[in-house]
Amino acid sequence: MPDATPSLPNLLLASSEIDRDAAARAGHGFVRGLLQDASTKVLEVFGDRTALDGRALGWRAPSAADLDWYENEGVVLYLGRAGESARLALLRPADDSREDLLTLRHVALDLDHDDLAALTTAVALSHWHATHGHCPRCGGATLPRQAGWVRYCPNDGSSHFPRTDPAVIMAVVHPGEGRDDERILLARGPRWKGPHRSVLAGFVEPGESFEAAVARETFEESGVVVDDVRYLGNQPWPFPASLMVGFVATARTTALTPEDGEIEEIGWYSRADVDRGLAEGTLRLPGRISIARSLIEHWYGAELPDGVEGGSA
Ligand SMILES: [Zn+2]
Q1: Residues 6 or more apart from 276 whose CB is under 8 A from it?
Q2: What are phi and psi of 85, to 5 degrees?
Q3: Which domain holds residue 229?
Q4: Nearest-CA neighbor of 67 among 59, 58, 76?
Q5: pLDDT in tens, 112-121
Q6: CA distance 308 to 280
Q7: Number of folded domains in the chain?
Q8: Per DSSP, what are the bridge partners of residue 103?
Q9: What is the pLDDT of residue 311?
Q10: Sheet hosting strand 150-152, strand order edge to edge
């Protein structure tokens, strides 16, 4: 495996150590064979939720019922190989009656790297399958193929592949008169209330580079002009289908014009402002599974505490 270590530390969802073994997916009878092999490990995912077994995912051996599910066009996703075993995810519909089911956000800090990578991929594909039951060309029903990595339209023979949408997320930093005067731009959108603040982010548009998206989104959301855009790291963010690509950018202006409907609070924070806000409960940072948290801590120069009210995504 190539070294996939990201340049930002603590990107929990980028810590993939599963061998995806993509070449095996299209093999005839491949999934059927895995479902009849007692060494295979199976995880059931219901919508975006799954059950834990202690502090691990609830892996189990395959059953005859799993094979029936697969033979009846239920989605069985081949995640790849981890350790000595092949890993499959059975992607079931959401089940609101099951109170034992937890989301990736709930369990991320409990899981090891292999389990975290497996669940991140399974949740992303679960959402994709649930929303791509019909062919974009002809509207006919599509069927899962290639071990859950393709949906196929039997009406016109077209194949459809899971998408992941690139989004930029950026620490916009004004250098000021030196380190004590340096400030980071933190904001709150309408989804969050109270002291929650994070860095700016937005989707990359067709025909646009990452760096241009950083400059455009920053200007649209805050009115700040940036340059010197530098890449720091990335991680998947399957809520539902993003790949968050992280940057630091230098602010050349400081006047703030928050975008209507997108930004409710915005401001510049020195390191001392961050310390004070966390201590007084007037500032809450994004959760530890987010790249936003990593970007803020990268700028700050150390891991930050969760503040007086405890952490929250
Ligand atoms: Zn079709």
Answers
A1: 282, 283
A2: -125, 150
A3: 165-300
A4: 76
A5: 989 999 999 9
A6: 7
A7: 2
A8: 49
A9: 40
A10: 143-145, 150-152, 159-160
Ramachandran area for residue 310 (φ above 0: left; ψ -120 to 50: alpha; else beta): left
The answer to whether residues 148 and 175 belong to one domain is: no
The mean per-residue pLDDT over the stretch 51-74 comes to 96
Same domain, 182 and 237: yes
Distance from the alpha carbon of residue 142 to the mean position of ligand 1, in angstroms: 7
The whole-number average pLDDT for the span 157-183 is: 96
pLDDT, position 310: 43
Classify residue 241: in a domain, yes or no.
yes
17-29: pLDDT as tens digits: 799 999 999 999 9
Question: 256 C-alpha to center of ligand 1: Å?
Answer: 48
Q: Is residue 5 part of a domain?
A: no
Does residue 310 form part of some domain? Answer: no
Check whether residue 140 and residue 181 sit in a common domain.
no
Please check whether residue 115 lies inside any domain of the structure.
yes
End position of a domain, from candidates 134, 160, 186: 160
CA 72 / ligand 1 centre spacing (Å): 20
Q: How far is the CA of 156 from the centre of ligand 1 (A)?
A: 5
Query: pLDDT tens for residues 69-107?
Result: 999 999 999 999 998 899 999 999 999 999 999 999 999
Residue after which a domain boundary falls, among 143, 160, 177: 160
Report the Cα 302 to chain-centroid distance in Å. 23
Assess whether 155 and 95 both reside in one domain.
yes
Q: Is the confidence at residue 7, as pLDDT, over 90?
A: no
CA of 139 to the centre of ligand 1 (A): 6
